[in-house]
Amino acid sequence: MARVPEPEETPDGPTYEGRLLDHPDEEVVDQGAAFDIRTLFSRRSVLGVVGAGIGTVALAACGMNSASGSDSSVTEIPDETAGPYPADGSNGPDILEQSGIVRSDIRSNIDGSETVEGVALTFTLKVTDMANDNKAFEGVAVYAWHCDAQGRYSMYSEGVEDATWLRGVQVADEKGEVTFTSVFPACYTGRWTHIHFEIYPDVDSITDADNAIATSQMALPEDACNAVFELSVYDGSAENLSNVSLDDDNVFGDDGGEHQMATISGDTDKGYVASLDVPVDTGTEPTGGAEPGGGGGEGGEPPEGGAPPEGGTPAEGGAASAEK
Predict the structure, then answer these.
(1) Contact predicate 80/250, CB 8 Å
(2) Lower CB density within 10 Å: C or N end of the chain?
(3) How many CB atoms are closer than 10 A to CB 105?
(4) In angstroms, rounded to a whole number, what is the distance separating the alpha carbons of residues 18 and 152?
(5) Greatest CA separation found in the chain?
(6) Is the pTM of this model over 0.85?
(7) How far is the C-alpha of 202 from the C-alpha of 217, rounded, in Å?
(8) 17-68 pLDDT, tens per residue?
(9) Could you give all domains of the chain from N- to C-terminal order, each with its CATH number?
(10) To 10 degrees, what angle do helices 52-62 and 33-42 make?
(11) Distance CA 314, CA 188 (A)
């Protein structure tokens, strides 16, 4: 049996090979991974045997990709289509050119009129920069949008083409966070309940959709959806949700929404608070956005297929279709 190394007592505490023990009350072999790595690097004999292998282990322990500088222990937010209703100028309507779009409360039109109904939802996106040790991505601009409680999208659905609610831009703070005050979106035919967002390098670049460095969607948890959809204002959403799953959703189905599922707390009376970590790798080429399957056509005409939640007429429920 190998002999357990004995620490050396010093005025500053017990040490081993000149290094203070991280856990003085534990044996040397139980000091933890960080102490072990420091010990490995201090031994010329070990380095002589394994050479660059130790360097590889150390890089892996740090979780860094030496080629790109990105954090290899973090998964980049999946690139997704912006869908047929982005209103970012890529298929007709462009809200990002309008004064007042930078706002945190998106429940009303930009001019403050026509506040939408629905269960209160405050959601936070925490954007990090994978190319910079996954640090907070301060200063990026995040454009978020989603449907209302009837499955309608402002600027597109029939009867609300002139509305601008449930769309807004926020600039990430020193924590990389943006927070929006909104309402819980509906579930319409063929899609899991979700919120869209695009990330831009800064607020000055939001007027051109091609400037987006990431486009993705946030999924909302099933338990919260089930509770919200019991309310009459969400008529039809419960049935629509029962006919789709995260695995067969045409956006979240790639991984069952693993990297896009929000954490959430709250209830239908007090409202919900949701958050999602959004790691962005600027070293990779964005593949999301409106072009690959986003559809919409000239003037923002909704693509064929799908329907608004049951209980809404075309005039009331709009034409929120099953998007890609």
Answers:
(1) no
(2) N
(3) 13
(4) 67
(5) 81
(6) no
(7) 20
(8) 666 766 677 766 555 544 443 443 343 333 343 344 434 433 344 444 434 5
(9) 8-62 (no CATH), 95-317 (2.60.130.10)
(10) 150
(11) 13
